[in-house]
Specification:
With 157 residues, this protein is α+β, with helices and mostly antiparallel strands. It is built from six helices and eight strands. Strands 2, 3, 5, 6, 7 and 8 form a six-stranded antiparallel β-sheet that branches. A two-stranded parallel sheet has the order 1-4. A hairpin with a 7-residue loop joins β7 and β8.
Length: 157
Amino acid sequence: MHKDIPTVFSCADDVIQSVDKELGASDWLLIDQDRINQFASATGDHQWIHVDPEKAKSGPYGTTIAHGYLTLSLVNYFLPQIIQLKNLTMGINYGVDKVRFPLPVKCGSKIRGVAKTMSVDVISEKAVQATIRVTVEIDGEVKPACIIDTISRYYFE
């Protein structure tokens, strides 16, 4: 069961205590053609499967699909809805491990992020490096759109 309120991390120990725990879920987000087109413009990826609704009707999915990297980039939109960081002096996106795209996101679908802390490494008394797995779910689908292990460094007061 996904909780509706964000998980609060106020200190390094809060992050450490979250290992193997579900952190919650974000709100659902509609993926419409305008968002897909804007991503295509920003990245230069104008493949018909993404930007040509008429041609995509006869394609493998019956409609356009979001770019995998669009889905991946929305993790930065979902995480602040799931995790609230208090007493933070600095947070850094350190990298990612294991990115997978099991199912494409069809235009008109709703997606959300669900997060779980996989591991935490202590950097210092007030700093940790957390690996948080974000699973991007598609409303009404069994398979997720994306699974990513994000790596973040959190420095607390």
